[in-house]
Design a protein that fits this description.
By secondary structure, the chain is α/β, with parallel strands linked by helices. Helix content is 39%, strand content 20%. The structure holds adenosine-5'-diphosphate (ADP). One of its GO terms (molecular function) is ATP binding.
Length: 391
């Protein structure tokens, strides 16, 4: 007889991660899996607790996130047909202005979240189709939504608004911020392992294929580099990051580009890929001696340094800097480049600790604690699932 489980579904820009958690203990259990390269060459990898590995290309590369979700659900059916799934926890990109917490999904809430699709057209519909798929596959399970925006909803007004006429703020045009599950996890790690730092002012850099930074004070988000959409702030694998809106007007009036063409340009063809002309993948860029690849990394790290200064100002100082996400956790080169010349703000990196990935990268005598911590968005999804099951 198998125990009962919480299933987590974490849809990123080009990946879908899934994991089982034991409902009773909260521990990761049974299987972890991931579909990568959604949209280009989707590939599924999973490992079951008995060591069995599953690896396959998905039949239909065009099937996008919906295809990835189907593949994950099929994997669960094949590998654990008798597992009792008590809750399915979904990472949902947008909770709108009022959702400050995770929630058990009902038809009314799904309708409310569907109405937010214009805020996140590239992600919200995929997320909700994932919810529908999971409801069909596990009709008796609690479906829990955890929002990327919720962690940031306590931003002070100056970090929540744009300088547009007020009616737009009231209509929901705000600086939402994203990657909230990752920041929530890092805040909980700081609370557990670095309580003094947790109480202070910390900048967290979530550097993955999608990238953003967040200023935490006392574990609460004060400001984020991402704004209304997940294209703002830092340059990313294929996204521009901050872009003068005048550029968009120019593209529309002079190059005749419409919304779809601009979306494709700023979300899929820009960032590290656009600048390097080579790849969106940091490993590929670091391995290349092409000057354009070096420049792409230079632009990436320079923008991180600018935002670091801005977030430190928003926090009124800085006590800690935490690197996380695929690049933040693994790229000693990027971390060193970000911290280079940051002594004026109190950041001094221990080069040897950086090479061996810390987790404490602070040079002796460094005033600002520099850490690299692995994020765990699935762990936050499972935590929320247990909380709702216990309620
Ligand atoms: P996502 O936003 O899709 O979840 P990840 O957090 O997995 O992305 O981060 C993916 C990025 O991390 C890629 O650019 C990848 O090249 C980079 N990365 C992973 N491992 C390393 C490494 N050892 N050195 C440099 N970059 C790395």
């Amino acid at each position: 007889m198998l125990n009962s489980f919480i299933l987590t579904l974490n849809a990123g820009s080009s990946s879908l991660k899934t994991a089982f958690y034991d409902t009773a203990t909260g521990g990761a259990s049974l299987m972890t899996g991931q579909v990568d390269r959604i949209g280009s060459a989707p590939h599924l990898k999973a490992t079951w607790a008995d060591g069995t590995r599953v690896e396959r290309d998905l039949d239909n590369p065009q099937a996008g996130h919906a295809g990835a979700m189907k593949a994950v659900l099929r994997l669960v059916e094949e590998g654990a047909p008798e597992a009792r799934i008590e809750a399915v926890c979904h990472r949902i990109v947008h909770g709108g202005p009022d959702r400050t917490d995770s929630v058990v999904l009902t038809e009314a809430i799904i309708k409310e979240l569907s109405a937010l699709a214009p805020y996140a057209p590239l992600h919200q519909p995929h997320n909700l189709s994932g919810v529908r798929g999971a409801m069909e596959a596990f009709p008796d399970a609690l479906q829990v939504a955890c929002f990327d925006t919720a962690f940031h909803r306590g931003h002070p007004w100056v970090n929540d608004t744009f300088a547009l006429p007020r009616e737009y703020y009231d209509k929901g045009v705000r600086r939402y911020g994203f990657h909230g599950l990752s920041y929530d996890y890092i805040a909980s790690r700081l609370a557990a392992d670095y309580p003094t730092l947790y109480a202070g002012r910390v900048v967290v850099a979530h550097l993955g294929n999608g990238a953003s930074m967040c200023g935490l004070h006392g574990g609460r988000s004060i400001a984020s580099t991402m704004g209304f959409s997940a294209v703002d702030g830092l340059p990313m694998g294929t996204r521009t990051g901050q872009l003068d809106p005048g550029v968009l007007l120019y593209l529309m009036t002079e190059e005749g580009m419409d919304a779809a063409a601009i979306t494709d340009l700023i979300y899929r063809r820009s960032g590290l890929l656009g600048l390097s002309g080579l790849s969106n993948d940091m490993r590929t860029l670091e391995a290349s001696d092409d000057p354009a690849a070096r420049q792409a990394i230079e632009y990436f790290t320079f923008r991180i340094r600018r935002e670091l200064g801005g977030l430190a100002a928003a926090l009124g100082g800085i006590d800690g800097l935490v690197f996380t996400g695929g690049i933040g956790e693994h790229s000693a080169h990027v971390r060193a480049a970000v911290c280079e010349g940051m002594g004026w703000i109190g950041i001094d990196l221990d080069r040897q600790a950086n090479r061996t990935h810390g987790p404490d990268l602070t040079a002796p005598g460094g005033r600002v604690k520099v850490l690299t911590l692995a994020t765990d968005e699935e762990g936050v999804l499972a935590r929320e699932g247990r909380r709702h099951l216990a309620a």
